[in-house]
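Why does residue order matter? Because the sequence determines the fold. Keep that principle in mind as you read this record.
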Amino acid sequence: MANTTVSQSDFIKNAEFNRFGLITVILTLVGCLGGLTVGLGAIESTVALIVVIIPTMITLSFLLAVSPMKWIFSAATVSLSIDLILMTYYLLT
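Structure:
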């Protein structure tokens, strides 16, 4: 258990050190995947549009506010997961 905590701590420290490189990757992934999800079908449903836009905008707000990387990673993970789930749904229907 202690090794896991140390590795997570090292990961966060490295993420804080490499903040600007990670921000560009997260910005590209979250922005493009959110746009694709909206374009594939979320635009037709108000509920789906809200479900896609709110986590995407929260992630982008964290990036602009220079929030801790731990918060940014959490928001990006939620946003990308929702986008991938809805994108899969729209591609299969």
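DSSP finds four helices and no strands in the chain.
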